[in-house]
UniProtKB/TrEMBL annotation:
UniProt keywords, alphabetically: ATP-binding, Nucleotide-binding
Pfam families assigned: OsmC
Species this chain originates from: Sinorhizobium medicae
GO MF: ATP binding
Protein name (Swiss-Prot/TrEMBL): ABC transporter ATP-binding protein
Transmembrane segments: none
Keyword ATP-binding among record annotations: yes
Superkingdom of this protein's organism: Bacteria
InterPro entries per record: KH_dom-like_a/b (IPR015946), OsmC/Ohr_fam (IPR003718), OsmC/Ohrsf (IPR036102)
Amino acid sequence: MAELKVRTRETGASAVVGRTGLPHVKSLTGGELDIVTNPSQPGFGPLDLLYASLASCLVLSARIAASRFGVLDRLTEVSVKVTGEKAHDEPSRVARFDIAFIIKGDFDETVRHAIAEAAEEEICTVSNTLRGGPDFVSTVSAE
């Protein structure tokens, strides 16, 4: 496995919801969005954000992988679609992620698959976290 170069910035998010209304999310880096809860509403729900986090991490990681393999100059575009299947039992969770890579560029299928594999299994922080079962440390207060 290649040496990992860790670049950090402050990360995190907070969400707030009242007795009625929709949740509002803010990132520590300044992003904000309202969360939708009705399936017919356009926008992002909590699972959409999970899938979007994985998809965006994978496209960036695929570009990094192409660079590591020395083929970045031949890469045209990477797109990733992530969907999933919720578990049919408790607790509520995603039981399976379905990931479809489209990697455009001037290289063969072997390189294409190597880029996807490196992105998913070595580079992407989100996929590594989801596979790793991180610890959850919670605090609860009235303020």
